[in-house]
Specification:
The chain is an alpha/beta fold. Helix content is about 20%, strand content about 30%. The protein is built from 8 helices and 30 strands. Strand 22 and strand 23 form a beta hairpin. Helix 1 runs parallel beside helix 7, helix 4 runs parallel beside helix 7 and helix 5 crosses helix 6. The protein is elongated. The two termini are about 30 Å apart. About 40% of the residues are buried.
């Protein structure tokens, strides 16, 4: 933000949801890339194209436990007239020196082992007697028991076509192919591919470090005893979990009392480990709304954190009308100040903080916000909405039916209803009543 001191711009106008989000995203820049070990890069966004240095698999190998054979030697083989082949050795996964399979010969081969020279196909062990001289085998004789437990020949009961049960070199990817494109989020399958092609490190944008801080002298940590007038701090847990879900590394700070100096000190302590700060509570117009007070004092020269430029504004939305946003500290760390009501803070996180986190990760704008769909309202009665406000109501989405049902009321304190919702129903600013059967935008939270 360009302002050098907080401004209560909401006293002069109502900002739209889209305007506020645009301001947030305009001030957030992707984090600088770093080189990370593979497991440390999980959840990060790749900043370079990765090409395949070696083909996968790097050699022809067996997809079955069985026998490597020449196709001519097993042509016409049947249970009545099996092909009898001399076993010339074992080929295990990781084998270096390989036996050559000549006419009338076979080699025991394990899944993943290289196809030995001379062999053209693999017959599964179940198509043979397993080298025991008996009936159809159900598995290989353990290597520790060979050769005593297996005869020097094997009977093959079925023919095999060329390349049967053989994974061809490069059948997964060829050398020079694009393995992963820049912009890919690295999950377990992508990490597996990088390891398979020999990459020990990768260049990515790191996961943002998000510090979540709740304010309020009435807040008690879960597990402690409540006293008269106190409630448990749920916001910091909800927002820290939401930050992790968005891809961040989240740090939760216990509730800060309603004291401006204490809050300033807490913010200063957290700046060293924050790419983004999120506060909840203290942004409205009450006498104890200390986030405004603390950041105003910071910007007007009080001791403590400097470099603050925070705008406090009112948005044309419900819940979540009071919002604050700007940068703070010498590194101009982004700070989003959310309202304190539980549903208001969570909805505000989904609309503004999650996109900021995803932008810090370097994801394209099309992927920073939750996906939305259209669905038909399935309700017993019409839903009311305040004029001039974009309302976000908790809902349960049925993808098969293409419907969405309300969960709980519209109150911004109804945590239980939020816990059972999987979506937000969006009622536009110019709509005051939504009849059952109406087509609505639905933001998917899962």
């Amino acid at each position: 933000m360009s302002s050098s001191a907080p401004q209560d711009t909401g006293q002069h106008r109502l900002w739209s949801v889209d305007e506020h989000l645009a301001d947030v995203l305009a001030a957030v820049r992707p984090l600088e890339p770093i080189e990370l070990q593979l497991l440390d890069a999980q959840g990060c966004v790749l900043v370079e194209d990765v090409t395949v240095p070696v083909a996968l698999p790097p050699f022809d190998n067996s997809s079955m436990d069985g026998y490597a054979v020449r196709t001519a030697d097993v042509q016409g083989a049947s249970e009545e007239f099996p092909a009898v082949l001399t076993v010339v050795g074992d080929v295990a996964a990781g084998s270096g020196e390989l036996p050559t399979v000549g006419p009338g010969q076979a080699a025991r081969i394990m899944t993943g082992a290289p196809l030995p020279p001379g062999a053209e196909a693999v017959v599964p062990v179940e198509w043979t007697d397993g080298g025991t001289g008996g009936g159809a085998a159900s598995g290989m004789t353990p290597a520790s028991a060979a050769p005593e437990g297996a005869a020097g020949e094997v009977r093959v009961n079925r023919a095999a076509e060329a390349r049967a049960h053989v994974r061809a070199r490069g059948s997964d990817v060829q050398a020079g192919d694009l393995a992963l494109a820049a912009g890919t989020v690295l999950g377990p399958p992508q990490i597996a591919l990088l390891a398979a092609i020999g990459r020990g490190t990768v260049r990515v944008r790191p996961r943002p470090r998000v510090v979540v801080m709740s304010t309020g002298s009435e807040l008690v940590q879960p597990g402690e005893a409540l006293t008269p007038g106190t409630i448990y701090d749920s916001n910091s847990f909800a927002l820290a979990a939401a930050a992790r879900d968005a891809g961040a590394i989240a740090y939760r700070v216990g509730a800060v009392a309603d004291d401006a100096e204490t809050l300033r000190a807490a913010i200063e302590d957290q700046l060293i480990r924050a790419d983004l700060l999120v506060t909840t509570g203290g942004v409205s117009v009450g006498a104890y709304d200390v986030v405004k007070e603390a950041l105003t004092a910071v910007s007007t020269g009080a001791e403590g954190v400097d470099g603050a430029g925070i705008d406090f504004r009112k948005l044309a939305m419900q819940p979540g009308k009071p919002q604050g946003f700007g940068t703070i500290g010498p590194d101009h760390t982004p700070l989003l100040a959310l309202p304190g009501n539980p549903v208001s803070s969570y909805v505000s996180f989904e609309l503004f903080v999650r996109p900021a986190i995803r932008a810090l990760m370097g994801l394209p704008q099309s992927e920073v916000s939750r996906p939305s769909v259209r669905a038909v309202l399935d309700a017993d009665k019409a839903l009311g909405s305040p004029a001039g406000r974009r309302q976000f109501l908790r809902g349960k989405y049925d993808a098969d039916a293409g419907t969405v049902s309300p969960v709980g009321g519209s109150g911004s304190h109804l945590i239980a209803a939020l816990a059972h919702a999987d979506s937000l129903m969006v009622v536009p600013e110019d709509v005051t009543s939504v009849e059952p059967g109406t087509d609505l935008e639905v933001v998917l939270l899962g």
